[in-house]
Amino acid sequence: MKTNIPWPQLEAIHTIAFDFDGVFTDNKVYVSETGMEHVRCDRADGLAIDLLRSYKRVRALDFQMIILSKEKNPVVAARARKLGIRCVSGKDHKLNWLKTFFESTRPHDIAPFTGLIYLGNDLNDLPAIECAGFSVVPADAHPLLRSAASVVLNTLGGCGFVREFVERLLRLGQMNREELYELIHNSGDRHQS
Ligand SMILES: [Mg+2]
């Protein structure tokens, strides 16, 4: 793990990119006899995304969230839709996709990866983990990712990992009740992301 990297201020972040399997799921897949695939997600992570979006709205921030997955299975898009997050799936080389994306959306940004938070769990995330200004992995991430990330969280992928990330990013434990209730009461509306 890169040592002594402080959690960023969201004002300095323009993109939060999430891997899907092993981040929003426990990295397991149920396969039926017809080949239909099912995954298991954590509703605590869903509320976390709502809180993050609410924080963005209350503080008038400008970051975007993207789920960036290697998987082409429609379960990824279905969960992303439910969470209200843009989904880019079937991407084998995530770092290349991000480079191209930033070149087109942030053409004047000479160091676009500085404003990126990246969350991933497996080897195909390693290049992006190493380039992102701040990178976060679950407790059960591959050892090489645990070594490379800015921070390793206490939770496992799909078991409240995104929830822990959001609560620490927003410094939820330091909020007073008024700030907390404002976030909660604004968290039901998913028309912005
Ligand atoms: Mg993964």
Mind sketching the topology for me?
Layout: E1 15-18, E2 30-31, E3 37-38, H1 43-58, E4 64-68, H2 74-83, E5 86-88, H3 94-105, E6 116-119, H4 126-131, E7 134-137, H5 143-148, E8 151-152, H6 161-169, H7 177-185
Parallel strand pairs: 1-4, 1-6, 4-5, 6-7, 7-8
Antiparallel strand pairs: 2-3
Helix pairs in contact: 1-6, 1-7
The structure holds magnesium ion.
What does this structure look like?
- The chain has 193 residues and is α/β, with parallel strands linked by helices.
- The protein has a single domain, classed as Rossmann fold (3-Layer(aba) Sandwich).
- Helix content is 35%, strand content 13%.
- The protein has 7 helices and 8 strands, in the order βββαβαβαβαβαβαα.
- The strands form 2 sheets. A 6-stranded parallel sheet has the order 5-4-1-6-7-8. A two-stranded antiparallel sheet has the order 2-3.
- Strand 6, helix 4 and strand 7 form a beta-alpha-beta unit.
- Helix 1 packs across helix 7.
- It is globular.
- Magnesium ion (MG) binds next to loops.
The helix/strand order is EEEHEHEHEHEHEHH
- How many domains would you count in the coordinates? 1
Helical run tally = 7
The CATH superfamily label reads HAD superfamily/HAD-like
Low-confidence stretches: none
Q: Residue share in helices?
A: 25-40%
Distance between the termini: 30 Å
The dominant shape is globular
Which ligands occur here? magnesium ion
Mean pLDDT, rounded to whole units?
A: 93
Q: What value does the Rg take, in angstroms?
A: 16 Å
Identify the CATH class.
Alpha Beta
Strand content: 5-15%
Q: Under the CATH scheme, which architecture would be assigned?
A: 3-Layer(aba) Sandwich
Topology, number of strands: 8
Q: Which sheet architecture does the biggest sheet show?
A: 6 strands, parallel
Quote the CATH topology: Rossmann fold
> Structural class of the secondary structure composition?
alpha/beta
Q: Strand order within the widest sheet? A: 5-4-1-6-7-8
